[in-house]
Amino acid sequence: MDRREFTASLVAGGCAGMCVDLTLFPLDTIKTRLQSQQGFYKAGGFRGIYAGVPSAAIGSFPNAAVFFVTYESTKSLFTGYSATNLAPITHMLAASLGEIVACLIRVPTEVVKQRTQANPSLNTYRVLLNTLHEEGFRGLYRGYGSTVLREIPFSLVQFPLWEYLKVLSK
């Protein structure tokens, strides 16, 4: 991957991810509160619908940027295979590696964001400090494995299909 492609993946991926995350944030808050053990209204109901948005805003760009840089870099490592029947496998591998790396940023962001959404009386910084104090650094990665296992199946279908449709549209 040359420098221009790297920069394009970094900036385009980061901007796209941030736009999606910030646009859909209120729906994500409602979903988190509906799933809260304390119940929707005790978790904040419809008030403070943007509680946790700072963690989403901070983590969104690097999360998406890292995914797309990893995805495109992995694809470029296997360039010779992209013209063969192995192209879908290359895309699956690239997307899976992208998810594994992106989750290193996504999971701590999600932990802080969801805890803030479920307890809007605390701000993002306080939730981060509480998590580090009570659970240590590992607390930020609670659910890393299950998140990766949830994301990879989507990528195994989505990215080979996306690449195939890009070729078809040319």
UniProtKB/TrEMBL annotation:
Q: How does it sit in the membrane?
A: Multi-pass membrane protein
Leader sequence segment: none
Per UniProt, the keywords (alphabetical) are: Membrane, Repeat, Transmembrane, Transmembrane helix, Transport
A cellular component annotation (GO) from this entry: membrane
Q: Which InterPro entries match?
A: MCP_dom_sf, MCP_transmembrane
Spans of the Solcar repeats?
4-77, 86-168
Regions crossing the membrane = 48-69, 89-107
User: According to its UniProt record, which reaction does this protein catalyse?
Assistant: S-adenosyl-L-homocysteine(out) + S-adenosyl-L-methionine(in) = S-adenosyl-L-homocysteine(in) + S-adenosyl-L-methionine(out)
Q: Which Gene3D superfamilies match?
A: Mitochondrial carrier domain (1.50.40.10)
Subcellular location per the Swiss-Prot or TrEMBL entry: Membrane
Which SUPFAM superfamilies does the UniProt record give?
Answer: Mitochondrial carrier
Q: What does this protein do?
A: Mitochondrial S-adenosyl-L-methionine/S-adenosyl-L-homocysteine antiporter. Mediates the exchange of cytosolic S-adenosyl-L-methionine, the predominant methyl-group donor for macromolecule methylation processes, for mitochondrial S-adenosylhomocysteine(SAH), a by-product of methylation reactions.
* Protein family per UniProt: Belongs to the mitochondrial carrier (TC 2.A.29) family.
Q: What is this protein called?
A: Mitochondrial S-adenosylmethionine carrier protein
| Gene label | LOC107753336
